[in-house]
C-alpha cells in the first residue's frame, strides 16, 4: 500500500486534537487542520490551516482534496456530523478516514442508556476526578471492589498511536485497533498515588448499582450529567469487562505501554 504523507485533522483545537497534531508532526507527516470559519484557534507554524463551513459538504470536499488521510477528533454534538465528513472524504478520494472513536468499545458496551462515550483518558481522569480520585483533597471513591481492570490511555499516547497507524497503512487498514497506555485497577492506582504523596487517601466505597439508579433518575429529568454515572458504572463495575484484553495494537504499532507511576506523578504535579 502506498505511503500516507498528507493528513488533515478535524477538531484539532479540542481536547484530543493538539496531541494528535503534535504526534503527526513529530512523525514527519504534512499536517492540515480543518476548523470552523469563525474559529480563532492557532496551530504550529508548519501546519496548514483551512477554515471552512463544516456544515457544507462542498466546502469539506474542497478542504480535503489531495489529502491521503483524514482524522476526526471532534467531540460532543459534532460527532453527529461525521457522516458528512466521511462522504466528503470519499468524494475527494481520500485513502484513509479515522473517525472519532477514541473511547470505550462501542461495539460491545455493556450499557445502552448512553450514546457516545469519552474514553478513559488517564491523566485527565486523575486530574478531574473521573477515576474517583481527588488528588488535591486526597480522597477517592472506590467502585464496588476496586479490582475491576480498566484500560487508561494518555492523550499524547493516543496521538502516537494514530501517527503509528498511518505510518503502517497496510497493517492497519480497515481494522478496529484497541490501544491502552496500561490496564490497571482502581486499587492499583490508589496504591501508587499513596506511595507518591506519602500518605493514605480517605476512601468512600460506592456501589455501581446505586450509580445506575442515580443515572436513571437524571435521565428521566433530561439531565445530561447522567452520563457520568452510567460511564462510571460501565468502566468500574465488577465484571464490566471493558479492559483491553485482546487484539491490542500497541505491539503491532511498534509502541510500548506507558508507566502508571509517571502518569500519576504528572497528574499530581498538575494539581499543585
Quantity of strands, as a count: 10
Structural class: alpha/beta
**Shape estimate:** globular
Q: Helical proportion? A: 25-40%
CATH class of the largest domain: Alpha Beta
**What is the architecture of the largest domain at the second tier of CATH?**
Alpha-Beta Complex
Poorly predicted spans: 110-119
- Beta-strand content estimate: 15-25%
Task: Give me the CATH superfamily of the largest domain.
Answer: UDP-galactose 4-epimerase, domain 1
Taking the alpha carbons of the first and last residues, their distance comes to 48 Å
Radius of gyration: 20 Å
Number of helices: 10
Residue-averaged pLDDT: 88
Largest sheet: 5 strands, parallel
Tally of structural domains: 2
Protein name: Pinoresinol reductase 1
Keywords: NADP, Oxidoreductase
Organism: Fusarium oxysporum f. sp. cubense
GO molecular function: oxidoreductase activity
SSE topology sketch:
Blueprint: E1 6-10, H1 17-26, E2 30-36, E3 48-52, H2 57-64, E4 69-72, H3 82-91, E5 96-98, H4 122-128, E6 133-134, E7 139-143, E8 150-152, H5 155-167, H6 169-172, E9 182-184, H7 186-197, E10 202-206, H8 208-220, H9 226-236, H10 260-270
Helix pairs in contact: 1-5, 2-3, 4-10, 7-10, 8-9
Organism: Fusarium oxysporum f. sp. cubense
Domain NmrA-like: 6-109
Keywords: NADP, Oxidoreductase
